C-alpha cells in the first residue's frame, strides 16, 4: 500500500448504530496491517467502544480514538486503551462542548475535534469549530500537557491553515487526498499550508 507521504493512516470504524453507516471492523484492520508501516490511527465511531479496544489493539492499532458521546465510560476506556499498549484519544462531535474533554486532559494523548458530523465523507468544513480548538489548545498549555489536537472533516489546503492557526497539529484528510489526481502532491500541499499557517 502506497503511503503517498502521509504520517499516519486514519481508519474510520462505524458500527451502523453510533452513526448510520457501517464500515469495517478489526479483521479488516488486521489485513491492512501487513500492507503498511504507518502508524494506524483508528477512529471508533461506535456505540460502546470499550468492548472492542483489545480487538483493535491486537489488529494493529497504534492510536485509538473513541467518542465522548459514546456509551462507554471515558476514563475506563482510556485506561483500557493504555493497558492494551495504544495511545488514547477522545473525539468530540460538533455539538459537544470542549468542557467534555477538560477533566480528562491528564490522561489523554490526543483530542479529536470533528469539523463535520461524523458518519459520512465529503462534508463541508465547519469553521465555527475553530474556537473549540483554540480553547482546547489553551487548556492544554495551561495544564502543561503537550497533547495532539486532531481535526477530522472537510480538510483542504484552505481549511487546514485555519485549523493550524487555531492550534490543531494533526489533520485527517480523506476526500482531498483520495479525489486528488496526485495524492502525494496533495499531501505536500496540505503539509505546506499547515506549516505556513
Ligand atoms: Zn475519522
State the shape.
Answer: globular
Q: Please trace the helix and strand order, writing H or E for each element.
A: EHEHEHEEHEHEHH
Total number of strands: 7
Number of helices: 7
Give a short overview.
The protein is an alpha/beta fold. It has seven helices and seven strands; from the N terminus they run βαβαβαββαβαβαα.
Description:
This protein has 197 residues and is of the alpha/beta class. It is 33% helix and 18% strand. It is built from seven helices and seven strands; from the N terminus they run βαβαβαββαβαβαα. It has helices at 26-33, 53-59, 74-83, 130-142, 157-166, 175-178, 183-195; strands at 9-14, 40-45, 63-67, 87-92, 110-114, 148-152, 170-172. A seven-stranded parallel β-sheet has the order 1-2-3-4-5-6-7. Helix 4 (130-142) links the parallel strand 5 (110-114) and strand 6 (148-152). The longest helix is centred in the last third of the chain and has 13 residues, at 130-142. The structure holds zinc ion (ZN). Zinc ion binds next to strand 1.
Key attributes of the depicted protein:
197 residues, alpha/beta, seven-stranded parallel beta sheet, 7 strands, 33% helix, binds zinc ion
